[in-house]
Amino acid sequence: MILRKLRELNVERCVTHFKHSLEQWSSMEWGCAAAGEMGELCNILKKIQRETQGIGARDVGRIEGDKKKAVADEVADVIIYLDLLCAKEGIDLPAAIASKFDETSRKVGYGRALSAHS
């Protein structure tokens, strides 16, 4: 349900607030925006890991504040951009997720599915 509401508001916000239609960027540009956010997520994870291992200077490259929130925020940014890519391509994101999850589940012998028809 939340992914369907995200699609509605995400596309609306893109157009009304950012003044940017889905068509103004190619699918490659939407994908690169998602990859950029993934890079930011990986950088945060790297910093958290280094801090956990005690690597590096005490005051350099640390995540200030709530680390879990920092990770969650970047994961959300990735999903938001991926939703816009899917909107541009006419992909139903919840259906695509369910289909791929179920396909992999069948492949590995996991007996449960996200789709009602699987």
Description:
This protein has a single domain, classed as Orthogonal Bundle (Helix Hairpins), CATH 1.10.287. By secondary structure, it is mainly α. It has helices spanning 2-16, 27-53, 67-89, 93-108. 8% of the residues are buried. It has 4 helices and no strands. The two termini are 19 Å apart. The radius of gyration is 18 Å and the shape is flat. The longest helix is centred in the middle third of the chain and has 27 residues, at 27-53.
Topology at a glance:
Blueprint: H1 2-16, H2 27-53, H3 67-89, H4 93-108
Helix pairs in contact: 1-3, 2-3
Features of this protein?
118 residues, mainly alpha, Helix Hairpins, single chain, 69% helix
Query: Helix proportion of residues, in percent?
Result: 55-70%
Shape: flat
Largest sheet: none
- Strand tally, please? 0
Strand content: under 5%
- CATH architecture verdict: Orthogonal Bundle
**Fold-level CATH name:** Helix Hairpins
Structural class: mainly alpha
The number of distinct helices, counting runs of at least 4 residues, comes to 4
The radius of gyration over CA amounts to 18 Å
Classified by CATH, the class is Mainly Alpha
Low-confidence stretches: none
**Secondary-structure element sequence?**
HHHH
Oligomer: single chain
